[in-house]
Amino acid sequence: MWRPCGTFDDTYEKNISIVRTPAQWIITLASLVALALVPEFASGRVIVTVNLIGISIISAQGLNVLTGMTGQISLGQAAFMGVGAFIQMMLMNHLGFPFWLALPFAALLTGLMGVFFGLPSLRIKGFYLAMATLAAQFLVPWMIIHIRPDITGGTNTITIKPASLLGIALSSQSRIYYVIMFFTVVVIYLVRNLARCKIGRAFIAIRDNDLAAEVMGLEIFRYKLLSFFICSLLAGLAGGLWTIWMGSVNVDIFTLEESVWYLGMIIVGGLGSVPGAVFGVIFIRLLSLFIHIWAPTVSGFFPTVFAASVEKGLHPLLFGLIILLFLIYEPRGMSHRWEIIKNWYRSWPFSPGV
What we know:
Blueprint: H1 12-16, H2 22-41, H3 44-69, H4 77-93, H5 99-118, H6 127-146, H7 149-152, E1 158-159, E2 164-165, E3 168-169, H8 173-194, H9 198-208, H10 210-215, H11 220-246, E4 248-249, H12 256-269, H13 274-299, H14 304-329, H15 333-347
Antiparallel strand pairs: 1-4, 2-3
Helix pairs in contact: 3-8, 3-9, 3-11, 3-12, 3-13, 4-5, 4-6, 4-11, 5-11, 8-11, 9-11, 12-13, 13-14, 13-15
């Protein structure tokens, strides 16, 4: 990797640090300050969108650990978010748990359920594993609707009790924003470090060649289950935050289509890349918002009999087209393009190939 001229790692701590140079420290601190000031300058609609992006980043980072780093395909990420959301709701509404205590329990229990659905990964992989995880996307909603609907609410929308943290009521999107951004920044930092530690290297070894990794002494099954646990835990965390963000929960939100969206996010951003998952989420969520705003205008150019169909079909059409274009022209995702830009910047005015 290209480094700025005159930057040397004279200690081991500098070599393994994420933020290395004074310029990087300035950019990092400035970014954190900018995040903290967003509610002071942004409109309510912008804050709602940013909150959704933050929740999606947490869930996408979990899927990135499982699919991007470990190579285990999952089509049930939205279902695990639903598990975390409903556990959060039940703990707060029925057991009287405070928000700050219900959230870690929801994440942990969702992680354990993810381990259960990860058990087939010992024997199957690839397309067959995708079908096994797809089962979660159908089983979880069925369980929520049919098993004790008096507690889960079945198909009804359930409003959660007002949440508070340190005596501050999370009664507005601006206050909820700080909670979501805190967890988003922490998750990004932890996943970035996970990719650089022993566990992350084991995940990558399994992704590249699980047979060779097993021959080298790695406990394949244990690491695969750990990857499923981390992925589901982060999905449960995102689901718990979703209930606070929305103030309610409904089983119809966590659909198969939403799981495919999350898979598309990490593909667009770059599989296995922590910044790539962030780029992919921002790109896809803003694209979805753009389509939602402009779809009525586009449908107006078509005859009235087709207008409703065009407006409804524009969203999946553009999503599929963008995924296809990325797979053909930028299979390594937006993170690869970002690395090219950084290398160009660091070597300027000299050629990167020198």
